[in-house]
Amino acid sequence: xxxxxxxxxxxxxxxxxxxxxxxxxxxxxxxxxxxxxxxxxxxxxxxxxxxxxxxxxxxxxxxxxxxxxxxxxxxxxxxxxxxxxxxxxxxxxxxxxxxxxxxxxxxxxxxxxxxxxxxxxxxxxxxxxxxxxxxxxxxxxxxxxxxxxxxxxxxxxxxxxxxxxxxxxxxxxxxxxxxxxxxxxxxxxxxxxxxxxxxxxxxxxxxxxxxxxxxxxxxxxxxxxxxxxxxxxxxxxxxxxxxxxxxxxxxxx
Amino acid sequence: xxxxxxxxxxxxxxxxxxxxxxxxxxxxxxxxxxxxxxxxxxxxxxxxxxxxxxxxxxxxxxxxxxxxxxxxxxxxxxxxxxxxxxxxxxxxxxxxxxxxxxxxxxxxxxxxxxxxxxxxxxxxxxxxxxxxxxxxxxxxxxxxxxxxxxxxxxxxxxxxxxxxxxxxxxxxxxxxxxxxxxxxxxxxxxxxxxxxxxxxxxxxxxxxxxxxxxxxxxxxxxxxxxxxxxxxxxxxxxxxxxxxxxxxxxxxxxxxxxxxxxxxxxxxxxxxxxxxxxxxxxxxxxxxxxxx
Lengths: 253, 292
Fold this sequence. Notes:
The complex is a heterodimer. By secondary structure, chain A is mainly alpha-helical. Helix content of chain A is 72%, strand content 0%. By secondary structure, chain B is of the alpha/beta class. In chain B, 32% of the residues lie in helices and 28% in strands. Chain B contains ten helices and 14 strands. The longest helix of chain B has 14 residues.
């Protein structure tokens, strides 16, 4: 258990020190504020921007996708890099066990994606709170943020981190990039409707409706919410299990 | 002298059918033990089998009496390993990287990490990121992570490749010091000078077969009084010479060239005998006649 925690700790630390990821986060934050900052133009364009819950909903369902896409690409190299740099041989020669290595990598990645998403949302919401011309209370901002973190960020982080760390450990990383680009492309191109959303959407699925719903269609299809959550969490979990079950990935024990 | 490493009839055949090791047997006690062989001879495969990363197809390896396949955990607790290609994690600091490796070995003691960094003269650079280090410094960090916890067996694969002469000397001193007090350093290299300076005993691998195992002195004895130098007028003479004898090395001069040869049967009376070196013996082995 201690070895797993060491892998997790250093994996998180290494990721957190990557300047490229901070660049992606800042770029995504700039884009999201251009789109959602409560300026006169944006308020005229977006009917519900005066509601903090709507602002958080937009950040989660649209703008966080840019950050997640960047993080997915950055995380995808973690296991192939270990093999390429000789670190895998070194780790296998230590008393580290396969489950400790795999779980440490996956959970380190999960915590990292989750932290980055939270920072992204907190940063945007803080700017919104400070810059809004309306009088809004802190609690009005805090409630949708907590909903977003609990309802959306946990399953989304699980999906992005587990899939992007585990799958390139089993398949060619270029093939993984193509798959990821297609999925994210679908997600970005999907136009929301009052109907139940497809389960495979990463951030625009019905999980995001737990944060805010359109007053004209205030119904949430719980079946679709559960399907969306199951897809995200389940895909991540299955990817992690596949890597763990793969023979010849680690020394024979 | 106790036997720390015991290799018995080890064969390793990969899934693609390539046999990297074929019935290799030798043992090593305390001190620095050299493993020589050209690229592709099977040294790295043997090293990986020793540190439990690879499983032999046949045969057994025992480290401090523990079988590498059946008692892997016991073995891993007793070895330090420096792989041939180790780029490490460039974003981590020197201290963090060595501390990470120490934690994986069950050592949660920052003083032990500082101590090992001091041994390799890297303590003053402990806050520097690995990505900012020179090649020699990276190798020192690599050896520091292998030394942490004072393992009984240290397995180092080509540790001096690509280092400048000063770093190589420093590295040799470090390995030599470590091998005292009953510990074993298994040093794999194709740099004969390193073996000559450090090892009393060595094994020579050639195309997966064990070609020689024993003392450096015994290997030198095989070529004693048979290494000679011969002056040649031109390259045509060298080509003719190569057909009849083992040419160990050649030096081009302003007029002609000098060949260092193995004159086994006194075929060349015009040659001058010289003191044989371990490199002569090794090249002769690789020429394939030492066993005759």
